[in-house]
Design goal:
The protein is mainly alpha-helical. It contains 17 helices and no strands.
């Protein structure tokens, strides 16, 4: 019940913001936020995390002119200068909300006298990555980097760290974990409904648009599908599973219509992770899981072979998978661009192997490549392969710390997924899937630097850390209860041993405990009776 209340409050604020935007009163949002958000954040500690999850899954980064693009008109991820023409205001509304959430969280912790950071490998790794990013920001500016662009490159690392900090400190109940899953279901589900409506309305448009939603939706749609299936596989019952199942067809149709090849690389990868967790968790069903896995591989291979050359909507996943083997003209040109782009990144990494290039500095292109700045103005600063991008910008030390953070997050998520409680197991599975999907999205389509994706990943990683702390508190409470009960149990076990000597058996005469003259204990003359 608390999780539903948390989500309802966060969604109410988002809806009110959307109404103000559509009503042509953008500056009223500031008053609306200044009045309600601090009160909400103070009264419900986990509400900032739920708000971040809902906005990350439902609000686009870039504006759209389509009449049905309601959520894209909320300039949450765009600067005040770009949205409202405020000169020099390069701050985004989401950054104001993050600062407000931090301030309210610290004030509440001080008032309750519970302010303190609990060190952990994952927390130390996130903090180290943030420190490296800030240092590379300064280093890039010292090398003549563009200030505004360097800030855009720094933002994803700051968002990730702040989202992690808020989730790790503000999630203090398991109901907040459920509220996070509710935010994913509702935010992504509504985006699926929008994508389905847009696909139907654009069915007769020639030429058909290559994508109907932003590229990040392939990440969120895949996470939604896995969450729905995982609740059925792991046996999680309730309204969350019902709502997710009802919204699943819309999400699948929207994902098919969006036609992003990255989606059909993410989806099988995270489903393999779910299969491994289920196989380890349910020994009695391993035979069934093995059969299901084998049938899926056979049927999937047959589907790709049968639909690889089809142009229907259902054939989009087969086209995406087959393009990895035999790409068409469009996919071939895109693949060639990315191959050359990766070659340039590798050459640039060798030149700045230790220190990195820093943020805001244009990426060199030793190998000539097509100029795509007309399609993406920041392509010369943020390439498609953001895995290599992290190494290029932050140097070898930054790359090592980044992968240490990924490893610590995977270990923490896997430990939580092995928990006996179904709810904690489900959340650990979703955290692991989000990290895997983030890496794949970052390898293929700028996922590491996506504002929306890093906010959700940061919230999931922080919530995993909070769940570990909640689990430890539960174990300590359980052990303390056992220590109180254990002496009573021992007394009950020992009490039946104190019985009278059976009648009818001969008894030895008692021995008088008196030292003998030789100092060797009682002598044989000391026996009485």
């Amino acid at each position: 019940m608390t999780g539903v209340l948390l989500f309802a409050l966060a969604f109410l604020f988002g809806s009110g913001t959307g109404v103000l935007v559509l009503g042509g009163q953008p500056f009223a949002i500031v008053f609306f936020a200044a009045v309600l958000m601090p009160l909400l954040f103070w009264r419900v500690p986990a509400s900032p995390v739920i708000f971040l999850v809902v906005t990350a899954t439902s609000i686009e980064r870039f504006a759209e002119n389509a009449p049905d693009a309601i959520t894209s008109r909320i300039p949450l991820f765009r600067s005040l200068q770009d949205s409202y023409g405020m000169s020099g205001a390069i701050v985004t509304p989401i950054e104001v909300i993050l600062v407000l959430a931090l301030f309210v969280g610290v004030a509440r912790a001080v008032s309750e006298r519970r302010l303190g950071l609990r060190p952990s490998p994952l927390g130390a790794a996130v903090a180290s990555v943030l420190v490296i990013a800030v240092l590379e920001e300064l280093y890039g500016l010292s090398r003549g980097g563009v200030f505004n662009i360097s800030l855009w490159e720094l933002r994803p690392f700051v968002y990730l760290a702040v989202a992690y900090l808020l989730a790790s400190q503000l999630v203090t109940k398991t109901s907040a974990l459920d509220a996070i899953l509710w935010g994913i279901v509702i935010g992504t589900g509504l985006k699926g409904v929008l994508g389905t409506e847009r696909l139907i309305s654009l069915a007769n448009v020639v030429p058909h648009p290559e994508a109907i939603l932003e590229h990040e939706e392939s990440f969120f749609f895949s996470i939604f599908m896995l969450l729905t299936v995982a609740m059925w596989v792991l046996g999680r019952r309730g309204k969350l599973r019902l709502v997710a199942t009802l919204l699943l067809p819309f999400v699948v149709v929207a994902d098919l219509g969006n036609d992003r090849r990255t989606a059909w690389v993410i989806l099988p990868s995270i489903f393999i992770a779910l299969w491994v967790i289920a196989y380890q968790r349910m020994p009695a069903r391993r035979k069934v899981l093995s059969i299901v896995g084998a049938v899926t591989i056979v049927v999937g291979s047959g589907y790709v072979a049968a639909f690889r050359n089809s142009t229907s909507l259902l054939a989009h996943p087969a086209n995406a998978i087959w393009s990895q083997i035999s790409p068409n003209a469009r996919d071939s040109s895109s693949d060639l661009y990315r191959v050359i782009e990766n070659q340039n990144l590798a050459l640039d990494i060798r030149e700045s192997f230790i220190t990195g290039t820093g943020f805001g500095v244009p990426i060199n292109h030793p190998v000539a490549v097509f100029d795509a700045t007309s399609l993406d103005p920041l392509i010369n600063y943020v390439p498609h392969n953001t895995i290599l991008y992290v190494w290029l910008r932050t140097g070898t030390l930054g790359a090592i710390l980044f992968w240490f953070m990924i490893g610590a997050a995977i270990v923490a998520a896997c430990r939580l997924a092995r928990h006996a409680d179904v709810n904690l197991c489900l959340f650990g599975t979703m955290a692991l899937a989000s990290i895997i999907a983030w890496l794949i999205q970052g390898r293929l389509d700028k996922g590491i630097t996506s504002f929306r994706v890093v906010i959700l990943v940061g919230c999931m990683m922080g919530a995993v850390e909070a769940a570990r702390r909640l689990r430890q508190v539960d174990l300590n409470a359980r052990s303390s209860r056992e220590e109180v009960v254990r002496p009573q149990v021992q007394e009950e076990v020992m009490r039946p041993q104190l019985v009278p000597f059976p009648a009818g058996y001969p008894r030895l005469p008692p021995v008088r405990r008196r030292a003998s003259l030789y100092g060797r204990g009682p002598s044989r003359y000391d026996r009485t009776g």
